[in-house]
Amino acid sequence: MKKLICVKDIHDVEKQGQKVFYIDSNTIITPAAKDAARDCGIEFSTEAHVCEVKSSCEVKVSEPAKVSEGELDKDMIYKVFKAMMDKGLLSGIFDAVSDKPYISEKDCGGLKIVRGKSVRMDVFDTGNPNDKVVYQEIINAEDGCSMNAGFITIEGCSFDWETTCEELYHVVEGTLVVTVDGKVYTAQPGDSVFFPKGAKLAFGSPDKMKAFYATH
Questions:
Q1: What CATH number should be reported for the domain whose range is 121-215?
Q2: pTM for the full model?
Q3: In whole angstroms, what is the distance from residue 142 CA to residue 148 CA?
């Protein structure tokens, strides 16, 4: 759409103390506006308007991160995603765009941080397809570690289990029920349960139990 410049527009520019009226190719200037501009000493220009900042108005501000054209600041991106992850705003998004089971950070010395809210669980095969048991291992031999660790969730089911190594479970939420030789043991959030190697037991939960485990 064409923009029409009239006498009033010229007077407005004059009141602002400007001597150049910046226009573009879609501008129509009325003859009266041209005469008014000439009388006021105002010139028309199609060059881009560059704002000038007077030294008396200069304000010291922190220099923003410099980003080359077509390039993103990696540190800035990391901070944004970390903040979103900490607030749970990436829940579900990560699963849709990544084939990794979780987000983690590693140090060359062996330190590893796993972002708990990013962990994606896999189905744990109990032998019964109706059982609702999922888990995800976050520490294993790939990390140069002699132990394994991860998360497990059991929902409304129970299954037989025989340990092939020493196992430790720390209940995060829900109820963990363990039956050994007919005797029932119950663990609640905050409780930890240790199984020696070769233990035969029934392992389950009447509600939805989540635990962190470590095996060795």
A1: 2.60.120.10
A2: 0.55
A3: 10
